[in-house]
Specification:
It contains twelve helices and four strands. By secondary structure, the chain is mainly alpha-helical. It is 55% helix and 4% strand. The strands form two sheets. The chain has a two-stranded antiparallel ribbon. A two-stranded antiparallel ribbon has the order 2-3. The longest helix is centred in the N-terminal third of the chain and has 21 residues. It is globular, with a radius of gyration of 20 Å.
Length: 285
C-alpha cells in the first residue's frame, strides 16, 4: 500500500466510494418513505429495549447505524465476568461518550458529516487489478473487498483508519505515512471525491482549502481507530477461534488511543515522557 502507484489508486478509489455511494438512513416508519427524522427515531426508540434505545441515542441526528452506534454495540458486547472486566467496560463507555461529544458533530464531507466508509482498508482488502490500456500508468487500478465493517462514518475516520493499516497486524509504526505522504493521498482522494460526489461538485478553487481542512481532520482523528479496533479485539479475545493473540492486540490498539490523548492534551509533554514512536512518525514531514 505504500508504493506510490498503489497509494494513489487507493486514494482515488476511496474518494469514489465516499463521493458516489449513498448513505441509507433508518427504515421507513408506518410505510412512509423519508418521514420526519425526529418522529422516525421516536418510533424506533419506543419499540426498542433499553439497550437498543441507548444505541439509537448514541449520536442524535445521525443516520443509523454509524461509527458511534457500532462502537456502542461493541461495548455492550464486552464481557463482564470479573470486576476487572466490569471496570474496563465502564471506562470504555465513558471514553466513548467523551469521543462522541468531541467528534459526533465534527464538520466534514458527506451527508451531515458522514460518508459510507469501508472501515477496514488493510492490505488484504485491496485488490490490484490488471491494468487496461486506458488506465493511467501512475495510478494502480484497485478494488476493495470485505464490506463487513462498512457503515456511515466521518471521512476523516476512514482515511485515518486506512493510514493506521499501513503498519499491518504487527503495528509497525515505522512505516506509517508521514505528513507529506498523507497530503499527497488526500490531494488524490479529494480530486476523485469531488468528481464522484452526488451533490454539486466543489469548485476547483476550493480544493486547496478542502485539502488543508481534511488533512487537519485526519490528524485529529488519528487516535480513534485505536479505540475502535481495541474494543473489537477485546470481544474477539473471548469468542474467536483464530490463532491470534487478540488480547495483546487490544492493548496495543487502545495504547494508541491513550498515547494520542496524552499528546493532544499535552500531558505527555508536561510529564517529560518521550514521545511514543507512533506519534513521532505521525509528526514526521
Amino acid at each position: 500500500m505504500r508504493r506510490e502507484v498503489v497509494r494513489r489508486g487507493i486514494a482515488r478509489k476511496l474518494g469514489e466510494w465516499h463521493g458516489a455511494l449513498p448513505i441509507e438512513s433508518t427504515p421507513p416508519v408506518d410505510g412512509v418513505e423519508n418521514p420526519d427524522e425526529e418522529r422516525q427515531l421516536h418510533a424506533l426508540a419506543t419499540k426498542a429495549s433499553p439497550r437498543s434505545r441507548k444505541v439509537i441515542s448514541t449520536a442524535p441526528g445521525k443516520v443509523i447505524p454509524n461509527l458511534w452506534t457500532v462502537m456502542q454495540k461493541w461495548i455492550f458486547a464486552l464481557p463482564t465476568r470479573t470486576e476487572v472486566e466490569k471496570a474496563r467496560k465502564d471506562e470504555l463507555q465513558q471514553e466513548l461518550e467523551r469521543i462522541v461529544l468531541e467528534f459526533g458533530n465534527f464538520p466534514g464531507l458527506g451527508d451531515h458529516g458522514l460518508v459510507f466508509g469501508h472501515c477496514d482498508l488493510l492490505s488484504g482488502n485491496v485488490i490490484i487489478r490488471p491494468s487496461q490500456p486506458a488506465d493511467p500508468a501512475d495510478v494502480a487500478p484497485v478494488s476493495f473487498i470485505d464490506y463487513e465493517y462498512a457503515t456511515p462514518v466521518p471521512a476523516a475516520f476512514d482515511i485515518a483508519n486506512h493510514f493506521a493499516e499501513w503498519g499491518g497486524f504487527d503495528c509497525d509504526y515505522n512505516v506509517l505515512p508521514t505528513r507529506s505522504q498523507r497530503r499527497a493521498f488526500i490531494a488524490d482522494y479529494l480530486d476523485s471525491y469531488c468528481s464522484f460526489m452526488n451533490d454539486e461538485p466543489h469548485p476547483t478553487s476550493e480544493l486547496p482549502s478542502l485539502q488543508r481542512q481534511l488533512f487537519d481532520a485526519v490528524d485529529h482523528f488519528r487516535g480513534i481507530p485505536g479505540f475502535y479496533w481495541g474494543i473489537w479485539a477485546l470481544i474477539q479475545a473471548t469468542i474467536s477461534q483464530i490463532d491470534f493473540d487478540y488480547a495483546s492486540y487490544a492493548e496495543v490498539r487502545l495504547g494508541e488511543y491513550r498515547d494520542w490523548r496524552a499528546e493532544e492534551g499535552g500531558s505527555r509533554e508536561s510529564s517529560g515522557k518521550e514521545m511514543p514512536l507512533r506519534e513521532r512518525r505521525w509528526a514526521e514531514e
